[in-house]
Amino acid sequence: MSNILLGCIADDFTGATDLANNLVRSGMRTVQTVGVPKDGSNAALKGEVHAVVVALKSRTTPSSQAVFESLEALKWLKSLGAKQIYFKYCSTFDSTKEGNIGPVTQALMEALHTDFTVVTPAFPDNGRTIFKGHLFVGDVLLADSSMRTHPLTPMTDSNLVRLMQSQFKGTVGLIDYKVVAQGEGALKQRIDLLRSQGVKAAVVDALSNEDLMVLGRAVKDLPLVSAGSGLAIGLAQNFGLKPTNPCANSPTNLPNPKGFKAVLSGSCSEMTLKQVQHFKGLGLPFFQLDPIKLSQSSSHIQSALEWAKNQFKQTPGPILIYSSCAPDEVRLIQRALSTSTSMSISNAGEIVENAMADIANGLTQMGVGQLLVAGGETSGKCVQALKISSLQIGPQIDPGVPWCYALGGTSKAPQNKPALNEGNLGIHMALKSGNFGREDFFSYAWTLLPH
Ligand code: ADP
Q1: DSSP state of 418
Q2: Which end of the chain is more exposed for a tag (fewer CB within 10 A), N or C?
Q3: Could you tell me where in the chain the CATH 3.40.980.20 domains are found?
Q4: Spatial CA neighbour of 88 closest among 199, 235, 248, 243
Q5: Taking the CA atoms of the chain, what radius of gyration do you get in angstroms?
């Protein structure tokens, strides 16, 4: 295997497939691994690979752990020859004042001996734009969007400079749209100026894909970029690579799907709630999980699995198992759990995530071979529980969400459960970030796989 060009570290699993999807579409042959392979091997990297995306679940873990895992990933990516490192986070930032983006960026900069990086979660294809350092989600500021009431990372400040500054020790600056509009040369000059003033990280405005192409060229020589998945479209050009023919992104590049179809939804984001309603409105089978029951006994998980088993006697799916509910209901549940069991908000999320992970395991053992998971943290837990070690990127369902072919790891699965690759089993998976995807996503996604 020759050296890779780009090494990427993603702070969650849906974000990793989102990034890998954009890299593939921009012309980079990309492999996504789940964490760093246990033995540090490069067995997943066959043939010519331009970019490797290491998916971590480090968005809401304690900072020290996020930093440790990110540095381990960096070490591995450098050993593969990566010329540039890309730290990927969510296009809605998903990181409060106590968040990990600042500490991880800082640690990566120190390890790479670099004194400057850019910060740009912009993803115009999904309506995430940055103007004067303020992040917009569609037509509204981040803090006025539904992200304001996210169960784990409520975003109440839209000013990325202020937000990043609260997490980052060095000075954070801004490169605004006027500079970006003047092109690559002006952007490079501004980077040099900010650097000479001691600024260590600059939020960069981006209103369109063209802005990201300009920024891509301007950051060619930076050892580290930090961004949402959007900037990925601007980096391939630096390595002389061109966007792939959309036909090359056809379903045929994944093996034929097998097995039952299921959707697991642990996202409480606005778009997911609409997708759940849409699925139910089609009269397709659904089962709602109750977090209070989950906190009391594992029998609720068994009930969900029994229900699924009965459904699959009548239909190949898709079926839906979900815990998604509106922000006020989430608050009531979090409050009920904190009074009855003195659990914190993250504990409440964990109960649901763990249940989803057990259900994902139960479903694959039941013969589910096509699994769609909604929710970043939720996807992370499911992918870990299924012992998935790498994901091959297939056709894009909607911006930021491709179908993937997930291959199991070689490590021993917990509780004597079989690892996914026993008998060379793979599974088709789509990992959807909360607010991504069209309203009929849960029924539409399957049409992109061969029947
Ligand atoms: P998104 O991509 O929309 O942010 P995530 O899966 O990352 O979705 O986060 C949603 C969080 O909310 C998870 O920790 C999940 O376990 C938790 N959650 C899901 N359903 C409920 C519920 N009914 N009550 C409380 N928390 C929930």
Answers
A1: P
A2: C
A3: 260-448
A4: 235
A5: 21
Instruction: Please give the structure tokens belonging to residue 216.
Output: 């891509």
Q: Which value, to the nearest 10 degrees, does the dihedral of the CA atoms of residues 179, 182, 187, 193 take?
A: -60
Quick check: CB of 437 below 6 Å from ligand 1?
no
Q: Is the domain covering 260-448 a CATH 3.40.980.20 domain?
A: yes
Beta strands 134-137 and 84-88 are: unpaired
Compute, in angstroms, the gap from residue 376 CA to the centroid of ligand 1. Answer: 8
Which whole-number Å values give the CA distances from 329 to 62, 282, 326, in the listed order? 26, 24, 5
Domain with CATH 3.40.50.10840 in the chain: 6-239
What are the DSSP E strand ranges found in 116-252? 117-120, 128-131, 134-137, 140-141, 171-175, 199-204, 224-227
pLDDT in tens, 286-340: 999 999 999 998 999 999 999 999 999 999 999 999 999 999 999 898 888 877 7
d(CA 219, CA 36): 26
Ligand 1 centroid to Cα of residue 150, in Å, is 8
Reading the block at residue 350, the tokens are 């964990």
Coil vs helix vs strand at 345: helix
**Atom 5 of ligand 1, nearest CA residue:** 375
The amino acid present at 409, given as its one-letter code, is: G
Topology, domain 6-239: Rossmann fold (3.40.50)
Q: What is the mean pLDDT of the chain?
A: 91
pLDDT digits (tens, 9 = 90+) for 191-223: 999 999 999 999 999 999 999 999 999 999 999
